Automatic annotation (TrEMBL), chains A, B, C, D:
Residues 49-68 bind DNA. It holds the Pfam family TetR_C_15. It comes from Caballeronia udeis. The keyword Transcription applies. Residues 1-23 are annotated as: Disordered. The keyword Methyltransferase does not apply. Keywords: DNA-binding, Repressor, Transcription, Transcription regulation. InterPro entries: DNA-bd_HTH_TetR-type_CS, Homeodomain-like_sf, HTH-type_TetR-like_transc_reg, HTH_TetR, TetR_C_15. Residues 26-86 form the HTH tetR-type domain. This is AcrR family transcriptional regulator.
Amino acid sequence: MSSQKSTATLRAESGQAKAPQRARGHARVAALLEAAATEFADKGYDAATMTAIASRAGASIGSLYQFFPTKDRIAGALLESYLNILAETFHKLREAAPSLDVSLLASRLTRTFVKFRATHPAFAVLVETYSFALPSTMSIRESLRREIESVLAEVAPHLAPAEIAVRAAVIQQIMKAAVAVNGDTSIASRKAVMDELEGLMRHYLQDAIQRANLDTLTSS
Amino acid sequence: MSSQKSTATLRAESGQAKAPQRARGHARVAALLEAAATEFADKGYDAATMTAIASRAGASIGSLYQFFPTKDRIAGALLESYLNILAETFHKLREAAPSLDVSLLASRLTRTFVKFRATHPAFAVLVETYSFALPSTMSIRESLRREIESVLAEVAPHLAPAEIAVRAAVIQQIMKAAVAVNGDTSIASRKAVMDELEGLMRHYLQDAIQRANLDTLTSS
Amino acid sequence: MSSQKSTATLRAESGQAKAPQRARGHARVAALLEAAATEFADKGYDAATMTAIASRAGASIGSLYQFFPTKDRIAGALLESYLNILAETFHKLREAAPSLDVSLLASRLTRTFVKFRATHPAFAVLVETYSFALPSTMSIRESLRREIESVLAEVAPHLAPAEIAVRAAVIQQIMKAAVAVNGDTSIASRKAVMDELEGLMRHYLQDAIQRANLDTLTSS
Amino acid sequence: MSSQKSTATLRAESGQAKAPQRARGHARVAALLEAAATEFADKGYDAATMTAIASRAGASIGSLYQFFPTKDRIAGALLESYLNILAETFHKLREAAPSLDVSLLASRLTRTFVKFRATHPAFAVLVETYSFALPSTMSIRESLRREIESVLAEVAPHLAPAEIAVRAAVIQQIMKAAVAVNGDTSIASRKAVMDELEGLMRHYLQDAIQRANLDTLTSS
DNA sequence: TATGAATGAGAATTCATTCAT
DNA sequence: AATGAATGAATTCTCATTCAT
């Protein structure tokens, strides 16, 4: 299935510094990652300090460095965990896609990402700061686009791959726009704008699906 | 005219620290701002150092500090100059708008911002780092949206203000999307995606204008 | 006892930044404080540099900042240690006071402070530079005056509090005068002047004690 | 007369950087000195900046440096002007001394210095910071002591010079004490303490004069 | 492994002083 | 003389990373 492949796209195997063998280690790592997430979200990548991360996690710096030998690495591990969550999310969406009508799919696509970004505010920081080597050669944006492509392929199976690629790129931008609007408190009627964006998404999906069918009909 | 007011919105008087009073000083300030732009664009706000900016401008660190007493201040001055350019650009666009057909307007809106961002890569960095106090109380995003609103008001004069605000917000997102796509080298068929976005913009503008006219007919 | 309270007056708990938790740390802190004392005494507060303090203590600048996050803080910690010594000194003096005759008390009061100031030359510098927040709300001068008051109360118990306050203020000035004379090499016959001051102190104490007794007799 | 010699003691001929030839220059110099006085008094010697002094005087730094080639020099010039005022003051006091009774003399000695220090708060700063070369080889304290000696010689002419020196040193300390008390807001009953110090001064002067006369009688 | 001390290369910023116009 | 720009050494403080116990 293409689903498996594309899930693998977001999951990466390395990145983690030293797999903690024991339960104690697992708790530590989890605490450190959470602390890092909060610090990154609060201060940004540069301003977040290793000392602050450690102390927020109730650990010593020495301990932090035991698990993550550089700042890059803890950021990388955090990003990786986010990518896993995203992969999981898209996986579910892909599975549910065939049974969803266009309207619902548009809603899911938009809201899902908005919710994810709201839940994991550090994600934005880490994506902006992709200076550290990613586990995968692919950029995050690209990985995400691939996921969208696979969802799109699910609902518009007969669309040409090139067409899918283009449409996925546009959908990705609409998703990003939704996130931006959702976070922009200077917009008076945020709700209305969000609805408008969802409408745009629906319109765009509908168009894609119809064209796909038309093409299919034509070509057959 | 609303045009005047909204142009003023983007222009601000502060930002600059100590105005140069000699010819030499003016040249220095220009060189420093340019050097800062390059450094910010290359390294990002945090990683750009005052020393690097000074030496890139061929000035001593002391000279830099003579005109810009903090890093914030030079960033602020640079941002302000960008906002002035943007204000100018929007001013022209607003003036030209009535004589443009929807297709051309869509194109102008999209390309203009893309071009601006490509020409001034430091702008993105500075907008992300708006930690330093802006001259205006309004956020940059908000100012920009206001400009878009005034252009929109020019071509769809009978649209209700609230409707304009919502539509402007969406248009702003499409403009941002165009910038993002234009800068994302991982997209294979960038050209096609750009066209698609422009199409979206055209569609959205058309819809706004038509609805405005319809509303007018209905209400009259 | 009033002695306890007034001892507490000079001792304060803050000032130190990060308490060392290892033996090595304790040694470092001691070395740093001593180095700071020497630097402050030699150069004055402003001219003493953190770098010089660190290197005089055989530590790296980072190590200094580990324990004292600002220049203020190391000065504060040093001052605090001096205040502790002074509190201790006065405590002993207060205990010994009843068994001392006026002549000896005068001598002790004068010499003690002179000796303290000679032993800790940085004290003068720090007292002059009390720009950094003191742990206590009271000024150092005031704390010292309180100590003198409590000694005076010991030897002239029947003196009215207001009278004690005034006399303590004068005694404090004589003590300061002794320090000044002792350190002024431009005075040819320093020894003679010191004796004169001690005589003044004796005269003044005697007067206080006698008046106290007279008042008591009269009022009874 | 000894009066002339000792007046010369405080007045110094050099110190000034470049005698301004014209009226304009005089005004500038006066403004600069006043600005310096305010800055030194407000911020202390180290924290006062040449730039701040110049701008407070409404002059450019270049202009400041035209008259005072170093920071030391402007401080020196200021100090010198203070010493001239003090010399003048003592000169008058010396002339008035014979016609003053002890009580009044004590009062004058005490108050005069207190007033001077209150009027010229920068004096304290400059005296503490006598790192810059003084015009005279004598320290300020020593010069002042000489002045006191000459006043004392006026009222107790038969006192042995060595005795005068010792007594003058003590009187100087009482004068300093008065200044300290006057400036210490933490003293509740400042007025009472000031009176007490004045009493001490009177007592001490009286004693000196009487002993002088006794010695004279005895030796004759 | 855990902990906290040690390190030192920068980074921002200041300011006395000198220069050119 | 006056002005303001230029200079750069020095200073405080930060922080990722390494070490020793």
